[in-house]
Amino acid sequence: MKVKVLCRNPDDYVRETTRDIQRVPRNYDPTLHPFEVPREYTRALNATKLERVFAKPFVASLDGHRDGVNCIAKHSKSLSTVLSGACDGEVKLWNLSKRECLRSVQAHEGFVRGICSRFCGSSFFTVGDDKTIKQWKMGPPGYGLKEEPLNTILGKAVFTGIDHHQSEGTFATCGQTVDIWDELRSSPIRSFSWGVDSFSCVRYNPVETELLASCASDRSIILYDMRESTPLKKVIMKLKSNTLCWNPMEAYYFTCSSEDYNLYTYDMRCLDSPVRVHMDHVSAVLDVDYSPTGKEFVSASFDKTIRIFPKDGGHSREVYHTKRMQHVICVKWSADNKYILSGSDEMNIRLWKANASEKLGVLTAREKAALHYNQKLRDKFQHHPQVRRIARHRHLPRGIFRQKRELKEIKEAQTRKEQNVRKHSKPGSVPLVTEREKHVVTVVE
Amino acid sequence: TTTTTTTITTTTTTTTTAVLHIQYSTQQKSMCVSVQEGSEDERKHTKLLEAISSLGGRRRMKQTERSEASLQVSEFSVAADGAGEKVELSDLLGTMEKTPGAPNKTKKQLKNLQNRKDTLELPLSKQETEKIQRGVAYKKSSREVSRWESVITQNQKAEQLVFPLRQDPTGHKRMEQVVAGWKARTPLEQEIFSLLHSNSQPIHDPVLTPVEEASIKAMSLEEAKIRRAELQKARALQSYYEAKARRETRSRANCEYHRVQKKAKRRDFLKQFEEMVKTDPDAALEELKRMELSRMQERMTLKHQNSGKWAKAKAIMAKYDHSARKAMQEQLEINKDLTQKLAVPSEDEDEEKNGDEEAGALPDFVNDPEPILDPVNPWMRGKLSKEEPEPEEEEEEEEEENEEEKLLREFERKRKLREDEDDDLVPVPQEEENQSKSLNISSLQNDKVDEDDKDEEEEEEEEEEAEEVVSEFNSLFNRLMKSNTTPAVPDQNEGEELLDEGLVRVQTMEDLEALRKDRTNEANQEASVPATDTPTAPESASEPPNKKKRRRKEIDLKKVLTKQATVVKVPLAPTVLEEEEEEEEVHTEQAAIIKEAFAGDDVISDFLKDKRKQEEAGRPKVVDLTLPGWGEWGGLGLKPSKNKRRKFRKKVAPPPPRQDKKLPAVIISEKRDASVAAHQVSQLPFPFQNPTQFESCVRTPIGQTWNTQTTVRKLTAPRVVTKMGAIIEPMSREDLVPKQKSNEAKRGAAILLEEKRERGKKKGSGGKRALQQKKKKMQKQKKTKE
């Protein structure tokens, strides 16, 4: 038999602590809560406004280099450790949480062209203008001992870049050729050349770890397989690309930063045209790095800005700049998807938040819930003009702004001209060429 | 010496094999020279040697010296020259020709080979080979990379992605997992470890065997629950079916015997009748008449219609008693058999069953007066169509007979056995008729009573059989009758209803209406005709009116449109003068058509109406805000005072004049509000396909005010979740593998489950055995009852 009893359970109405808010029984009857769309709209508007108010991405500047920072590398096992090489051949190890330099090494004579850490995080490699590859211990030398590399390889030509394999003791360098080295040997185990005399960048694919890609000075991007004796394919573009980066979550996508102010995302299985053209920079793009989630990437440009692009978006979602930051030469996205590091001409390394308005530190559950709700609201109403206007508003230095306007005009003029030419010529003689197809010259097999 | 020189000259011309001979001869010669002649000869000899050596050309003789012991010593105690040299193919081929043993075929082939002059092709240039290599390598690597496609698309579609991708499973770890990562470091620990090793003690004692581990992995709690439910269900089903089977076997033993016997009797009767037809047609006719009479009687009386006392009693019992239900059905069957004129009871057992079911389902139909059947209509002919393959069936029946005889014999035997058993055992009286009997009644009496029972039963049976026989005869008679009537009636009505062909050509609306009138008359006539001739006739009678109705709905303009149709005149200039008359006709036709088409379309007045409507809608309305009962008495039948109403009737200020006030031919919508427009989306955003989609997306609230806690949490879940301070490693090949692993685990689980099932089956079979034993017991009990 079921006996119905009136009961009052204190758990239903008593708060757990005095800090907690009072428990209120709620009635979700929609008639009691009218105007849901306008109310949410105002909330969304407020959320976007607050987001812009709290958008303060700059975290810290690490100074200490005596020349422009030419390359940065992340430590593969420690989030707080960062390596940087400068144009005067000095390599510095930084602790990000303390924002101080742990160690500095005069690694090379001339530029430090490339730097990378070993997959285990116990040592790192540098290449420089003095035609040497040097391996260094990550830890400081013992007391009273001099800073000396673990290993030095003398090469025949200048090395311009280096990258280490994801899980094996091999690394790749580029210079006049792309070489694959075994850590234990003093000569390359394989060297690729394909009618090109110099390369600017070589990168391992982090997912399919035997694949490589390099940017060459003849405006081409060349793909390699470490196991093969020949390169795989190359695509020649209108202008030279400076660096490239593989997507760490999507094995066949890579993005290259080009001299023509754009970035191009390619699918390595189909090099005929890029999957996406990302444009917003107003000067040559010098470096690019993917976020570890593979959803976004950051690019550093000669126009003194950093931009963050969604991987499948044509335009940037964020632009970072400061008054003192000059040409940004290198950029890296931290392995926890929270920060961005940029090294620039004026000898500083800057630390940025990847999400400009994100609150740092531990959040309470309620804070988190509120943030999630606001984020969702912003997404929901992102197409509404007022919300969009606020959300998309960014400040730009005057120079860049002018350049941007100028570029826009140029582009408009070009399209207008093209249209006119098409209008006044035989139909079909001036074909429509999409933006993606414009920038590829040929694909060479 | 002359002889020697001659020999030399001859030998020098020969091949290298002759060199040895030369050496030999020269040595001999030098010996004899030293003996016979002086220094002159020696000089000559050296000259000669030089000459010989010059003859050899390149092949300068090498003075072979034997300085140490060797295996290769010629018979002339001189080291063999060229012993260690390589043998070339050409040398061997040379000897081949000389050897007589070699077959001619190979010789020919060799010659051909030597004579061939075409060269091998040049290898591809380095560039080309490299290109090919590159192409192959690229294809290979791109194929390799494409493996990730599924993972990537999956991640792109995922509602939420949690990074890092590979996270350690939360919760407690087992002892071995913790211990596995630990190493002996201190000397004491090492010592202990070495001791353990020396005694071959297991260090990491696994608590669970790998199989158990797999089963634990495979069977989560939910799965286990589902599995248990399945097993329960299966068990329940099994028990149900077993019970059913038991019941059936119990009842069948009785039924089958009677059925078989009845069949045999029927057959006998039929045979007799046929013989009678041949031998004594008058008697047969009489028999037929008798049958006809019985049928008539049956139709007149309510004997087998389950309306009697017995039937009513049975009907009450039928709900609970299977046998009662069956008895009722049999009654109905008999009724059906007797009354149906053309129907023939089916002879197969299965069909009989079906007949039973049908009889149960359609008793009313059976009692209805028989409709006048149409020979063309297959639906009205009953079961006649089934009887065409008769001769074959008869043959089969003969075979069946044997089987049935066997069966009968078996039944007889069983009966006898049972009776014997009954004789032996003391019966337990449970039936109503035997209630009065006490336990101490003698077996003789028992037998008598049994016999009485049997007699009763037999009487009943006989009655039934007689009826059945009659029905059988009915069927036979019908068959005979049918053979006269069956010749196919010519298809008169075929095609009549498909097309309505006629001479009238319908072109205008008036024509159509006129046609409709005619057709309605026809239809009425058709409907009045009773549905006697064809089965399709009622369909034809019913269909056309429907069509007409539809047409009426479509066309009847006069009812719909009350307005006078404005005539639209279309200027049509004649292009050809000669065919003016025809043209005119066409024109008038066209005009008529257009007139018809645009009849009632008064566009301007419609537009004006529309505009007026919108204006009225835009005009402000007086708002009545009076509340009854405020400031005065209120209640049923009381209305607020005029004064108050006047006071609270609010007139809204008139809106600004409409934009289209002075534009008679334009309606400008006043709905657009400039102040709101700034907040409205002007274009449909990308992922949405239509405005309603977008609107519904915006309209659903996601906040806590409108949703419960859990739904809010679900709705506001972020797309990407990262863990603070955790390094997000790039995707690795292991991320591809886990699926296969999990599959394997599942497979393992499946295997385990199968094993269990098998075990269960064994148990089940054991259970079956027990059931069989039970059955036997039951049968015994039954026997005792009988």
TrEMBL record, chain A:
Domain Sof1-like protein residue range list: 354-440
InterPro entries: Sof1, WD40/YVTN_repeat-like_dom_sf, WD40_repeat_CS, WD40_repeat_dom_sf, WD40_rpt, WD_repeat_DCAF13/WDSOF1
Domain of life: Eukaryota
Protein's cellular compartments: Nucleus, Nucleolus
Gene Ontology MF terms in the entry: ubiquitin-like ligase-substrate adaptor activity
GO cellular component: Cul4-RING E3 ubiquitin ligase complex; small-subunit processome
RNA-binding among keywords: no
Primary location: nucleus
Protein name: DDB1- and CUL4-associated factor 13
Keywords, ordered alphabetically: Nucleus, Repeat, Ribonucleoprotein, Ribosome biogenesis, rRNA processing, Ubl conjugation pathway, WD repeat
Pathways involved: Protein modification; protein ubiquitination
A Pfam family it matches: Sof1
WD repeats: 62-104, 278-309, 321-362
One Gene Ontology term from the biological process aspect of the record: maturation of SSU-rRNA from tricistronic rRNA transcript (SSU-rRNA, 5.8S rRNA, LSU-rRNA)
The family this protein is said to belong to: Belongs to the WD repeat DCAF13/WDSOF1 family.
SMART domains found in the cross-reference section: WD40
Organism: Astyanax mexicanus
TrEMBL record, chain B:
Biased composition (Polar residues): 436-446, 473-487, 522-539
InterPro entries reported in the protein's UniProt record: SSU_processome_Utp14 (IPR006709)
Bias kind Acidic residues: ranges: 346-359, 389-404, 420-433, 449-470
Descriptive protein name: UTP14A small subunit processome component
GO biological process, one term: rRNA processing
Record's compositionally biased regions (Basic residues): 641-652, 759-786
GO CC, alphabetical: small-subunit processome
Organism: Astyanax mexicanus (Blind cave fish)
Location, primary (coarse class): nucleus
Keywords: Nucleus, Phosphoprotein
Biased composition (Basic and acidic residues): 405-419, 732-758
UniProt record similarity statement: Belongs to the UTP14 family.
Region described as Disordered: spans on this chain: 344-555, 634-664, 732-786
Subcellular location: Nucleus, Nucleolus
Keyword Transcription carried by entry: no
